Fold:
Amino acid sequence: MDFRRLGRSGMKVSEISYGNWLTHGSQVEAEQATACVRAALDCGITTFDTADVYAGTKAESVLGEALRGTRRESYELFTKVYWPTGPGQNDRGLSRKHILESCHASLRRLQTDYVDLYQAHRFDYETPLEETLRAFDDLVRAGKVHYIGVSEWKAAEIARALEIADSMGLDRIVSSQPQYSMLWRVIEAEVVPLCVKEGIGQIVWSPIAQGVLTGKYLPGAPPPQGTRATDPTGSKFIARLMRDEVLEKVQQLRPLADEAGLSLAQMAIAWVLSNPNVSSAIVGASRPEQVRDNAAAAGTKLDADLLSSIDDVLDGVVESDPGLTTSPERRP
Structure:
């Protein structure tokens, strides 16, 4: 496993991170989830990403149990706050109340005294940004959080947060967690240039485009049963990519992967890691063998000719408009 610094911070993360967004506590039984976490550790993955909202808070509990007994200093643990975790009006957002209460609840579920990275899962348009950043800073000062990051924030939102942090002497954002893949490149226009300038690293999710870039979905054919595209929770996120014109292009990538000696998934992961602003690529899995296959992409370098050929194949189906969002509930 290769390692990279998380932005300009001093902490290093594994190039491949293990995430449990749509698996632990929902699609995958606890025993199988633990097997996947153990496979990740065996492959040298040290970075684990979750969120309080995943599987209605169950994902954090499953991950905490799976990591129990592992030397705490040997891995980096990331979680997030924003989405509703209860029925109350204050059980959501980035208010001081919700951030502090959610952090303490996450620590209990994860069976730890601290998280290495605490991330704002979306931007909160109703809470003053100063309040949010002060609450995060207080958690850092208290030793419950080592670093702070954001997920799916726009460049202007990140820039404003950095400006406030600098003016108030607060801890700065060190990471951004956006969707990023060969097919979804919306961060390249605005988010990446800002983050390069400000020393913020990308921890990207969905590098294999919800499984589309594995090649298992075929044009003109129904998706295989038991896959993300047939799951009620995950299918809404993959629907945009399940067009025949996209699936046909993905099949055209297979000869390129074969020639490079890679699986399609490995080539997709290596592609996002070819962006120097990417600190780590998050992969999920429902079986240990998937973890091992994905982890094998670490350290793989794609040459310029291959990168150019990939662009040629995918011409016309790449999403690159910075105005696009992965969240239907985002609003200006």
